Amino acid sequence: MHRKLVLFDIDGTLLKVGSINRRVLGDALLEVYGTEGSTGQHDFSGKMDGAIIYEVLENAGLDRREITERFERARETYITLFRERTKPSDITLLEGVRELLDELSTLPEIQLGLLTGNFEQSGRHKLRLPGIDHYFPFGAFAEDALLRTELPPIAVDRAARHTGTRFSAAETVIIGDTAHDIGCARVLDARSIAVATGNFSMQELAAHNPGALFENFAATGEVITEILNTQSSLPS
After folding, report:
1. pTM for this one?
2. At residue 210, what are phi and psi to the nearest 5 degrees?
């Protein structure tokens, strides 16, 4: 039996959030900084929530010191507003996700976790609304690091604390919808599985040589076969 630590991204991988996310962030930044910066047109794909705040405000001319001074208040305001305003109708669970998580949760060799650019409380709210938060007892989040590539070792450490077992690179799978997720797998020399349900096409993702690539998660059995596969990546 090959045990596996399977770390999922959230946005674009498990679910999609309507325009409420962008609107709430803009409102939070307007309240705290007096400007929403470039929130309205900024590309959020695969980025850490904290990095997004810095980027959109720097685009408005604020310097990093100004942003840092009020950053914690901005984070808390965003999370509070997001949890108050976001409803189940704002969340779309992506095709095959519920079936995949149901099946994985029955396999004793599989341990599920999160590796996401979301702040933990807002990210878990996204998962709670469609009823999938309980599948993920731990994870690595935007509060844990400045760069997404710093998250994989943190997630592995938390898995070890949660399970009492340290998963090796060969036992770890990172699943996401962007090149950033594939890059996170490379940090550990772990296996990556990419899915084209976000803003990156099959062709764009294939250029980054993930271990496996799916259009969506509709074929539950095929996805699980790739999760249990022991090869790390496609040939480059």
Report:
1. 0.93
2. -70, 165
